[in-house]
Structures are given as C-alpha cells and as structure tokens.
Amino acid sequence: MENDFHYFKRDISWLSFNYRVLLEAKDEHLPVYERINFISIYSSNLEEFYKIRVADHRAVASGATQSDEESVQSARELVEEINREVTRQLDDRVFIYEKQILPALRKNHIIFYQDYHVEPFHQQFIKNFFKEEMFPYLQPVPVDKGKIVSFLRDNRLYLAIRLYPKEGGEPLYFVMKQPYSKVPRFIELPSEGGYYYLMFAEDIIKANLEQIFPGYIVDSSYSIKISRDADILIDDTANGADLVKQLKQKVKKRKIGDVCRFVYDRSMPQDFLHFLTDAFHIQEDELVPGDKHLNLEDLRYLPNPNRSLPAQDKPKPMKLTCLDEKESIFNYVMQKDLLLYYPYHSFEHFIHFLYEAVHDPSTSEIMVTQYRVAENSAVINTLIAAAQNGKKVTVFVELKARFDEENNLATAEMMQNAGIKIIYSIPGLKVHAKVALVRRKGLNGEKVPSYAYISTGNFNEKTAVLYADCGLFTSRKGIVTDVYKLFQVLQGKNTTPFHTLLVTRFNLIPQLNQLIDNEIALAEKGKEGRIILKMNSLQDPAMIDRLYEASERGVKIDLIVRGICCLIPNQPYSKNIRITRIVDSFLEHARIWYFGNNSNPKLFLGSPDWMRRNLYRRIEAVTPVLDSDLKKDLTQFLQIQLSDNQKACWVDNQLHNIFKKKTSKEKAVRAQYYFYEWLKNRVFR
C-alpha cells in the first residue's frame, strides 16, 4: 500500500550536519584555536564531499554514468541545490572567521594578516622572506584560451594573475602554483609591541609579484583551486591478485580525475573568471565561489605563537585499574564481559588483549578484520609478532576502504611477508565489520575459553583518541561461535545460521523488524513502546518507514544521529520521533541500539549505520549486550547523551540545528565530558 512518507535528501542533510560543525567555531566558551580547528574540519569535510558525492552526481548529470536512483535532470538540480547551500554557508563561514575568530586572536595578542598590506616594520621582512625562501620555487605559467599549458592539480592552491605590459596592450594571464611542500602555508613574522604576527604564504607572494614580472603592471591576482573526482571505479567481480593489481593502478590516477569543483575568490571580476573558465573548460555547475583564502582545512596547522593561550582540556584516556589488579584481560573476560568506551578508555587495552594472545600458550589462532588502520600500526605490529611467535594469524583486509587503499595494500603485503594469512575483499561487497577473535585450545585437552571482540570503530590507535566508539570483549560461547562463523563466511565457506550476532545479508534486517514489531505491539497494548537509536547516519527508506510506522502506532523514538538523517521529524507520521545531533571535542562514531522490551531492554552495538550501503551492500556485525551491568551502563550512556544541553541540537523539519537550551531547573550537561566523569567514578567489578 502506498504511504505519504517523505524523506530529506541525503546530501542536503549532510550539509546540515557539516554546518553544525561550523557552528562550533562560534562557541566563545571554546579556546580560540579549538574554534579554528572546527573551521578546518568543516572545510576538509566539504572537500571530500565534493570529490565523492558531488562528483558522482555530476557524472550522472553529464550523462557519463547512469544511475537507478536519479535521472540526468534530478542530478543537475541536486548539484545546483548543493552549490546554493554551500554558497549560503560561505557567507556564515566568512562572518564567523572575520568577525569572531580574527578579533578573538587579536584579543589574545595574535594579529593574523588577511592580505598583503602589512605594518611598516614588517615590509622588509616579507621582501627578504620572499626572495630567500619562496622565489626559487615559483614557476608562473601563461594561460591562453587557445592552448592549455598548465594542468591544475587536485586540491592545490594557485594564484591566477592578470598583467599588462608597461607599454600598453592586451592583458596577459598566468597561473602559479603555491610551493606547498617547500614553504609552510602560514608564516610567523617578527613580534612587535607585545603582539605576535602571522601571515598567509600566498599574501607574501602577492606582495612581491612585481619581482616575478619585471616590465609588467600587475593588475590583480586571486586564489583558485580545483577539486577532482576521487572515487575509484573498479571491477566489482575482481578478487585477490586481480583486485590488488587494479587498485595499485587506479589509486595513482585519483589526482587526475575529472573536475568536480572550481573554487575561486569571489571578489574576482566576472571578465577574469570568464577567461579562466574558458581557458580551463570549466562548466557552470562546477563553479563554487570561495573567500580570498582557500583550503582553510590547512588552519589545523596554524602556529600558536602565544604559548600562554589555554588549550582545550580534553578528557585523557584512562586505564582500568581492575585489569591491573587481575593482570590479565583474559582472566577478567573469562568471568565477565567487558565494555570499553573510547576515547575515554585507553585503546592500549585492546593492544594488550592481542599481546596476551601472542604470549598465551593456549592461543591457536588470532583472527581480525582490517578496514582502516593507523600507519605504523601497533595492532599490525602485534599481529606480526604473533605470526613470528608461531601463532596462526588470519586477517581479512578490506582493500576498498576509500582513501585508505594504499595503506591497506601496504600493510597487507607487510603482514603477508611475515607469514600472516591474508583474506582480501569479497567481490561486490565491502566488509565493514570490526571484529577480532582469539581461538584457544587447552594444552592438555582441558576446556579453555576463546575470546571475541566486537567494536563500533576501527582497530586504529590514532583515531581511537579522536572518535567516540565502544567495544565489547566477551568469552560467551554463542558470540564467540558466531564471530568464528563470520570469519568462515569471509573466507567463502558455507556456514550455519547466526544465532547470537546480527549480521547484514543474513539475519540483521529480520531481527530489526522483529524488535520494532515488538515495541509496536507493546504500545498498542497500552504499555511503553520505546526505541533509542544512536548512529552516524540514517538513510535507508525501508528502515525509516518502519520508524515512521512505529511512531504512528505510539512508540516513543529518540534518534541520536550525528550526520546524515533522511527521516523528517515533526510530521503527523513522525510526531513521536526526536532527532538529537551532538558535535563536540570527539567525533561521535558509536552505533548503539536500545529497544525497551517492556522494561527488560535489549541493547546492541556494532558497525553498521542504517544506510542502504551498510544494510545491503556490506558485511556488518552487531552484538547483543547481554551482561546486566553493562546493559545498565550503556543505557546510562544513552540517557546522558539525550540530556546534553550544551552541545546537542534538535534537528527540525527544515534541517535546522536548534540548540537545546538549559532551563533554570536543569544542570548543565555536556555529554562527552559528563560521561567521562561518570566513567571515572564507575566501579568495575
């Protein structure tokens, strides 16, 4: 039967999330460099968004590719809508940066020049710096409409320059790449009168253009950049060595993909812009105006010359004393499940878990999935040590993890050379599950437990201090058996049904439908139907429809969704659904699901978001949380997130981020920091 349900557009919803990231730069309670970092994150997010999502839509709009999900016309309209929203956000970003961030820096005795007009006491310095540090690396290239003599590299800053001969005549045009690898983006100038001074490298170049073009009058110069399609199209049926060969060839071509965005200083005159677009064959829908300084993701590297400036006092990862007392994660988990919350807990506990497996005589095999790992990874090094110690080690490597293909290829080859059995990507699927298994056998035939670990985040010690995730250690036979079955599936072997784990493409969707049906049945009997879902993204129409249906039938639903959320709240069919978005010091990354079950709640954690790609085109793993104490803890965690009135927003039916306001009777709750203090006082038995 047809319904009247509606959904937000996925990419417009994502832009709402990224705008929420930008709003952190407005928070005057944060240290100024923390605010600057959020402008960097906003800009970096937008760059990747254009390289992947907008590039895909443009390919459909141009007729280069076909899509079952959108027509040529709808793709064109969506690209236009995206560009309009990005341009609108630019106005706010410029205001935040110029009217709030720069004055905040000045208040802290840091003057950040925004053009090449500097105080007299710095003029000689920038002349000398240009001559000695920059001039040797600058290579202006002429631009002619009839002949392109310069290839604009992906995400590199260029100056577009217009000159006139001193004796008169037609204008000449040049582009000049900024020497990013030879000269830092931000230059510290000599301090003066108790103030510190910073300057963009391109502004020093602009101040000295006459030195590069003697005999010409420099009319003007503006920053430009190109974003290129970074998606890699591979044969989905490729496997093993063929896939490795394909990826090695194609990642090299990522930097020369089709143009998906031409960003330019929006103060550039129209005739100048038209000349460049003609010369470089830029299409109208590729034009995205920017500020005078582009690539503001580089602001994460902005020097802080004022050492007295306070930094953000973020929670430091803690180690559990209960594990020190028992001296073994194995001994603890043999008796009781253990749930760790990163980055509040130290990721070193997981490294120690692997380390114990390396040196435990009963360990027969270690099995791990690899999606994104750190460079020079402690996880990988420990697995290599296990293989060198005579243990059997099996690692499933997902080579198709976007932007991590090269790192995954390199680490896979390194592990293979160390004697580790490597299983490569499954044709037609991505494996996104984050699971590890330590299989054990008693030396004298006695029964000893094996151990499983199921996580919401990657086995990456670097992101584990930035992303808010959780992971469950258990020796429960049902979960351990199912994790082993999952590795059998990854090796292409037939297996019996999963009984405890929820695995996409096997039993996840039916189980979710059953859980939702149960809450609907409770609500219709006059009992409380309750669902709390925490995830990164909610996009699958089929699952959204189930939530709409549950709402219509009386189930109270809270969604804690950081990013994309295509469900529209505040509609007749969603009147019982609230959407909370939290953006703070750490990237909320955990996927946790709560179903009330008539006051005997069922809780789950795992790797998938409710996106079509996750639910139907990937292998994902979700575990129930069965320990009663851990269920209470996880429920408390969700309640703290829902109580946040400092960094939480409601998402309304216009995709606005409506900040939750603390009432006079409420205490201030900043969920990430509040939960950290709660964990510090938590007694682990």
Nutshell version of this structure?
The chain is of the alpha/beta class. The two termini are 52 Å apart.
Strand content: 15-25%
| Annotation field: number of helices | 19
Catalogue the unreliable spans.
none
- Overall, the morphology is globular
What is the number of domains?
A: 3
Kindly state the number of beta strands: 28
Second CATH tier, the architecture of the largest domain? 2-Layer Sandwich
**C-alpha Rg (nearest Å):** 28 Å
For the record, give the distance between the C-alpha atoms at the N and C termini, rounded to a whole number: 52 Å
The CATH superfamily of the largest domain turns out to be Polyphosphate kinase middle domain
* Major β-sheet strand ordering: 18-26-24-23-19-20-21-27-28
Task: Please outline the major beta sheet.
Answer: 9 strands, mixed
Label the structural class.
Answer: alpha/beta
Describe this structure in words.
There is one protein chain. By secondary structure, the chain is an alpha/beta fold. It folds into 3 domains: 10-301, 2-Layer Sandwich (polyphosphate kinase like); 321-496, 2-Layer Sandwich (Endonuclease, Chain A); 508-680, Endonuclease Chain A (Endonuclease, Chain A, 2-Layer Sandwich), CATH 3.30.870.10. 37% of the residues lie in helices and 21% in strands. The strands form 5 sheets. The chain has a 9-stranded mixed sheet, with helices on both faces. Strands 10, 11, 12, 13, 15, 16, 17 and 22 form an 8-stranded mixed sheet that branches. A 6-stranded mixed sheet has the order 2-4-3-7-8-9. The radius of gyration is 28 Å and the shape is globular. The two termini are 52 Å apart. The mean pLDDT is 91.
